[in-house]
Design brief:
This protein has 428 residues and is α+β, with helices and mostly antiparallel strands. The protein is built from 17 helices and 12 strands. Helices cover 48% and strands 14% of the residues. The strands form 4 sheets. Strands 3, 4, 5, 6, 7 and 8 form a 6-stranded mixed beta sheet that branches. The longest helix has 32 residues, at 51-82. It is globular and about 85 Å long.
Length: 428
């Protein structure tokens, strides 16, 4: 590359950009140009710059990072619309990119939201890509969107653009909040649906945030107040701390009175006709011995889901005679006992699929060697999979797994292991 001094003026930026475009066209890899430009910066430590240069460069550098974030958002939205997460058997684009890049899922969702906003507000979108509008301003405006009011938001583009271009981020946030408030107050559409977020932060703690409609908020408030200790001279907790303790107490009581911390499993009835049963019981071993499978509430179950359900369900057998009357009804048995399931949850913590973060309480126990194929119902043969990946694995037999030392490894149909692309390879 040509010699580049990051402290030079904007006119040098344009010539450098022209040079970069020419170089990219010649070598066919704009990432090579980008890497070379970054290396120019890493070769110049900030300690070697004067105060004037450093104060100017840190702002200019942030603007260029914003431009890259605009490109990343556009690429992320394109990946989302094409469903590229499905190539790695991930349930969503945020889950896939969080696994591949280390970003938080919320960051990926914001990238998708801002890319959609750039399409809705093309003037602001172009300014973001050119570095004249910051990513924070884009995120603030994107947060103002209310379903059914995009046309009204687009009509306010000039006002938002003027605030964002001048760098008045406080003004952008105020305008966005004002628009959102007015849009929600419009009775022509339903109010925004309730939302609830539980996020892990540092030191093993979590934050709770959300929005509730009037009747839902009344229900929650009434419950919290009912279980909240009244203030007293001997209690130095703040109201917020007493509300938190009340919420935990409500959840503890609900778990004790309800599910008792154990996820309910499917109840399945296997109906086998007598001829099939006698064939499967003969010495020849011909026949599968499996006829129709019915869920307790849902009726006949797709054959592709049978193996998945047999992994973690309550099984009953019904043998039908030639006259279609039941000859024998077997004793119900659980594939994995509660102690086995609890032990597997304690070991695996959550879904064993690479990159999946579904917690153990929401997962199903999967027989690595299928129960139907003789796999034992033991801790060493069981691993946790969320319902999505459990269903995916049983419906895609060309995806294979190994389970060695109680570690699940997944392999694509072409034999490549499902794992994030190594950063040292991508960044080189």
């Amino acid at each position: 590359m040509a010699e580049f001094n990051p402290t030079q003026g904007d006119e040098i930026d344009e010539s450098m950009m022209d040079h970069a475009r020419t170089m990219a066209a010649q070598i066919g890899d704009p990432f090579a140009v980008l890497r070379a430009a970054i290396e120019q910066f890493t070769a110049v430590p900030s300690e070697s710059l004067t105060d004037v240069c450093l104060s100017a460069d840190v702002i200019r550098l942030r603007a260029q990072i914003g431009r890259l974030e605009a490109i990343f958002a556009e690429y992320t939205l394109g990946s989302h619309r094409r469903g590229l997460c499905g190539h790695d058997a991930m349930r969503s684009t945020p889950a896939w990119l969080a696994w591949q890049t280390g970003l938080a899922r919320g960051q990926v969702r914001r990238a998708i939201d801002t890319a959609e906003l750039a399409e809705l507000l093309p003037t602001i979108g172009a300014a973001w890509r050119d570095g004249r509008v910051s990513t924070n301003a884009m995120e603030a405006i994107a947060a103002a969107r209310v379903p059914g009011h995009d046309e009204k938001l687009a009509a306010c583009e000039d006002e938002f653009y003027d605030l964002a271009r001048r760098g008045d981020h406080k003004g952008v946030r105020r305008a966005a909040e004002a628009f959102k408030h007015l849009a929600r107050a419009d009775g022509t559409i339903p109010i925004e649906p309730d939302g609830f977020r539980l996020s892990k932060v540092l030191n093993g703690r979590s934050t709770i945030s959300g929005e509730l409609s009037g009747d839902a908020a009344e229900t929650v408030t009434t419950a919290v107040n009912a279980f909240m200790d009244p203030p007293s001279e001997t209690d130095d907790r703040t109201p917020a701390q007493r509300r938190a303790d009340a919420l935990v107490r409500i959840c503890q009581i609900a778990l004790h009175q309800g599910a008792k911390g154990v996820r309910a499993v499917a109840n399945v009835t296997v109906t086998v006709d007598w001829a099939t049963f006698t064939r499967s019981s003969s010495s020849s071993g011909s026949g599968s011995g499996l006829g129709v499978m019915d869920g307790q509430y849902t009726g006949p179950i797709d054959r592709r889901d049978i193996e998945r359900l047999l992994c973690d369900s309550t099984i009953s057998r019904v043998i039908m005679g030639p006259d279609s009357k039941p000859l024998d009804v077997g004793r119900s048995q659980r594939a994995f006992t509660d102690p086995q399931r609890n032990a597997i949850i304690a070991r695996d913590q959550g879904c064993g699929w690479a990159g999946c973060e579904i917690p153990g309480g929401w997962c199903e126990v999967h027989h690595h060697t299928h129960w139907e194929h003789g796999g034992p119902t033991c801790i060493e043969n069981g691993c946790l999979l969320c319902p999505y990946h459990h269903r995916f694995l049983h419906r895609h037999p060309n995806w294979t797994t190994t389970f060695h030392n109680q570690i699940l490894r997944i392999y694509r149909p072409d034999g490549r292991e499902l794992a994030p692309e190594p950063w040292n390879t991508l960044a080189a």
